[in-house]
Target: Nicalin
Amino acid sequence: MGNLQKSEPSLGFVIPVYSSVITLLIIVMTCVELCDAVTVVDVYRLVQYDVGGMPFGSRLAALNHHAGSAVLSSGAADLSRTVLILPVRELNLTFIRESIGWRKPLGGLLLLLPLDFSPQDTENIGEADHSSAKQLVKEVLVELEQLLIHANIPYPVYFGFEDDDVNSVLADVKRNDATGQLATATTGGYKLVVAAPEPKKIASPTISNTQGWLPGLKADGGSNQLPTIAIVASYDTFGAAPALSVGSDSSGSGVVAVLEIARLFSILYSNPKTRGRYNLLFGMTSGGPYNYNGTQKWLHSLDQRFRETIDYAVCLNSIGSSSNELWMHVSKPPENAYIKQIFEGFSNVAEELGLKVGLKHKKINISNPRVAWEHEQFSRLRVTALTVSELSVAPELLESTGGLSDKRQFVDEASISRSVKLVAESLARHIYGLEGKTIDIFADNSSLAVNPSYIRSWLDLLSATPRVAPFLSKNDPLIMALKKELTDHTVEVNVQQEVLDGIFTFYDSTSSRLHIYQVASVTFDLLLLLGLGSYLIVLFSFLVITTRGLDDLISLFRRPPSRKMKTA
Model:
């Protein structure tokens, strides 16, 4: 009986212990649930680069601050520990100017782009979209991009895309901010976390130039003595977010045109009876945004004797606009007899196609290394060259280089097709001595017709592929694809690898994952701690009473006897 009585308290002790463990597990699980990420999204960091040692772009990558909204941007609150979430649709560019001008330092900036501006968006492929709302967003993006890439920003700046989860978080943040109270550790709210290492310099970034060749009908002196016409486009891009810079129009449309022109002339040149007495050189160069550094290196790599055989070069840049007007940019004076001849040839074909071609002359300054157009690199080596573009004015450095606003939805396939036919027809009439004659060599519905499906497929690929040169490897899939395609239509195809030189230095860490957490306030934590502590005290008291008796519990809280009393 005595043994049985001793085992009863043990059984009574086990039951409360199990119940307490279960209760503690529930509390812990509740805490874990409160700390789980509400959502995780892909984000793309603002470019970080140096020009001649001067820092530009976002200088930090790691992010760990509470979220805020545009509601706070109009006040005088300290936002140095707040990440503002700003949809581009609602963007206040004046606030952006102030925040990047150090007058309103931020903890970070998350700019939300409309989902249809994503390179992965496939719902808007087809006809060019010129709706007023999208055009407005495009105009804002153009101005925003120039502000950001020319500023030294001491905090992380990321781009993301609107979706249901992010919009829901932003709506909650706006409601909280409307109370005038910043989200902090005391008040709770949402926390944005990007765990990214410190960005590192990209050592010796490479640029790749791809060229292909269609030899003309051999004469007695050999094909190398024949005159050569070069058709060239720069394929790489630059923008505020390298991982989003796909450049559908700026460089994309030009590359598509070069490939299609190569395909058309490969058909003509495959038959000796229709092969012209001109060599055709096709080039796709890199380093376009950086003073056409790749074009310069490519030209200098060519044998001087071969360069002297180049009759003229046609560079293609931004030809995907729905406008019916194109410009021919030249370095030689318009009065030059050869420039006149080339321009008249283009103008005659343009008139037949319902296009208008204007002539723009910009003299190059040999003492200034800066070039505005790709053809100017040819002109510096005394090679006649021109650029065909929808742009009437030469862009500034790092402007119109295929950034955030240059998306597939704003490019018109039909315009590229017309531009291709304009260039191909003008070249063919020059090659075959048919200037001034109305002969449609690349007639529609013929075997030599421009292929819209071919143009569309390559335009779709380029519009989904970021092409910022310093972030492309030597064997990048895009470079290999361009090489393979040119190999299908030309001969002696090779890829020239060079190191991007000059004054530019680039940093890595272009994309990451953003974790959005919903965090409870400190007040909640204190109440939770108080409740948990009270529960443990009650549980402890209960266990002592049931196992050892009330007297033992009281003795635990009784003041111990002093040393004198013990001695006595």
About this structure: The chain has a mean pLDDT of 87.
